[in-house]
TrEMBL record:
<dbReference type="Pfam" id="PF07978">
    <property type="entry name" value="NIPSNAP"/>
</dbReference>
<keyword id="KW-0732">Signal</keyword>
<feature type="domain" description="NIPSNAP">
    <location>
        <begin position="160"/>
        <end position="263"/>
    </location>
</feature>
<protein>
    <submittedName>
        <fullName>NIPSNAP family containing protein</fullName>
    </submittedName>
</protein>
<feature type="signal peptide">
    <location>
        <begin position="1"/>
        <end position="31"/>
    </location>
</feature>
<dbReference type="InterPro" id="IPR012577">
    <property type="entry name" value="NIPSNAP"/>
</dbReference>
<dbReference type="InterPro" id="IPR011008">
    <property type="entry name" value="Dimeric_a/b-barrel"/>
</dbReference>
Length: 264
């Protein structure tokens, strides 16, 4: 598989060290990154090929021209617990205003407009999808930047998992974020769970919540990693801390495969 041209994301080793340091002490006033998690629901009459063509040939190259990326594009695996017929797009931004300026730049980008002409030119009777929903996340202290580990894109057997943890109220949601920052992520790493991004929702259909994406060498590695996490002695201590009791009221889990043109 050909590696996309953008090379500005960080290597795993450096970022793992950054994560462990940030989990212990952080004085950041603003997030290092923000994420749009865009869900394209194809529906019964959606055109998956048209959506792929638009993302691969129009949107992602245009975002690269804006120095935005890496952009991840995923679909639920056939044996996933989740609905098929959806496409997940992950877009990282370095600041909140970049999300708005990016949209304006697309409108002025002649290469984008040409590449997206067939997709954007459809009328109301032939839409390429049923609907799009998005959530906007802010990066968390313990994982402040997107990480795509070396060798990930070359591994055709890799598997991803996107999880959303919803809380019953804002206090409990903030406590779950605190729990991640207090030590949950180092347990991930020790168990073989490799995060790509972790973010707390600023805007979205399910709030308060946090969402994170992880990657594994294959399905067997994913199952082994989560078994190791549940059995990890540090997790047993952290999960029994009464301060964090009842912080998660709902978990949405999406087991995903990457599109061939995905940059994550």
């Amino acid at each position: 598989m050909k590696t996309p041209p953008m090379k500005r994301w960080m290597t795993f080793g450096w970022t793992a060290a950054l994560c462990l340091t940030a989990c212990l002490q952080s004085d950041m006033s603003f997030a290092d990154e923000y994420y749009e998690v865009r869900t394209i629901v194809l529906g019964d009459k959606g055109d998956a090929a048209a959506v792929d063509q638009y993302l691969e040939k129009a949107l992602i190259p245009a975002l690269e021209r804006q120095n935005i990326g890496p952009v991840g594009v995923f679909a639920p695996k056939a044996n996933s617990e989740t609905k098929e017929g959806s496409v997940f797009v992950i877009i990282p931004f370095t600041e909140l205003g970049q999300m708005e300026s990016s949209r304006a730049a697309l409108a002025e980008d002649s290469e984008y407009q040409k590449a997206a002409a067939d997709y954007l030119g459809r009328d109301a009777k032939s839409p390429p999808y049923s609907r799009i929903s998005s959530e906007l996340l802010t990066a968390m202290d313990c994982w402040p930047k997107t990480v795509v580990p070396d060798g990930t894109l070359e591994n055709d057997e890799r598997v991803y998992e996107l999880r959303l943890y919803e809380s019953a109220n804002e206090r409990l949601g903030d406590l779950k974020v605190e729990m991640f920052n207090a030590g949950e992520v180092p347990i991930f790493l020790d168990s073989g769970i490799q995060p790509i991004f972790i973010g707390q929702a600023l805007v979205g259909p399910q709030m308060p919540s946090l969402t994170y994406l992880t990657v594994y060498k294959n399905e067997a590695a994913r199952e082994k990693a989560w078994d190791a996490f549940r059995a990890h002695p540090d997790w047993k201590v952290l999960s029994k801390n009464p301060r964090y009791g009842g912080t998660v009221s709902r978990i949405d889990k999406f087991v995903l495969s990457a599109k061939p043109y995905s940059q994550m």
